[in-house]
Amino acid sequence: MTETAARRRWLRLPLALAAASGAVAGSGVSSAAGSAAGSASGSTVSSASGSTVSSAWGSTVSSAAGPAASSEAGHAAPPVQAAPQPLAFTVIGDTPYSHLEERTLTQVLAAQEADVAFVLHLGDLKSGWESCSDDLLRRRHALLRASPRPVFFVPGDNEWVDCIRAPAGGFDPLDRLALLRRLFHEAPPPPRAGFDAFERQSQTPGSPPFPEHARWLQQGVAFLTVNLPGSRNATSNDTRLQQANAQRMIAVRQWLAQAPAWAQARQARALVVASHANPGFERDPADRPPIAPHDPDDAYAGWRAGLRELARVCPLPILLLHGDTHSFQIDQPLRDAAGRRIRQLTRVECFGTPRSAAWVRVSVPPTEPARFVITARQLAVESKY
To answer: What is the pTM of this model?
Structure first.
């Protein structure tokens, strides 16, 4: 008989971003992450995306992304905010994909350090071949709800878009999305999560009914979540789904466009954007104009265009979090209209199956300019005979 015991221990991966310039140290960030994840050696991954960005919105702001920018004068001075405290949260996604991974995820959630404010789950809380039944989705919801740290869930594609497939039970995707909203996005977050100014898009005047689109402030860091699934952004030949997807993307663009003003009004010093899909940054060529936002062959070209505009008008360091392709990576892949790299925005993709015992820790020290410190961690598993 073999008894497997999970022992909590922090394992750091050998990746680094140059904190001063925001440039990736080395040339193989994502591949190095995948190959060395089981090693106990390595270093913290630190990012200063926008190395001289200031949170004083009314003053000149410079960053590695380009020339200095300034906000318009004439606005009333915002209320004085308390000095920020250190903030730490963790990121998981694309798990659990089985009963065994349910046990692993329970251990991962229990292993979070005491200073972790909350956990972001970036979607795909089931595999594509598991049933999308009420029972399974409710069980996965209960698993996340039982976490010692509050968990905020961002929809993926396996739990609604892909439910129409036969192995998943042939469910109506919009019906599954409605169930996810009732489970995860109906009640307000618990007070222990510490979300300030929390609101859902469905609760703002004149906005469409998308409660999974949320925003909040925590220790001076603004957070924004959107429903951007994989499976080519839920592309479908079904007229009803096409209409629903068009409405969803209108809501996504609106929510993203409001982020700079919303963050400015709350004196945010950094911005975190969380979604599920890998946006395919590599499709935009270097030193040439990017793919047109409405290219029918690129389901995420419009999202990348929205991120470019966000970086243009928002002077803050921006951290983009996503899952989808199960490959932990940290880089700065967004390019401007001329094909030049935008170093103000850092992308982090979280781990996923089969690396279900690993997660990403993000910390934001209370320093100016604000910076993100990224650390990859995982459970150490020992076998006893």
So the answer is: 0.82
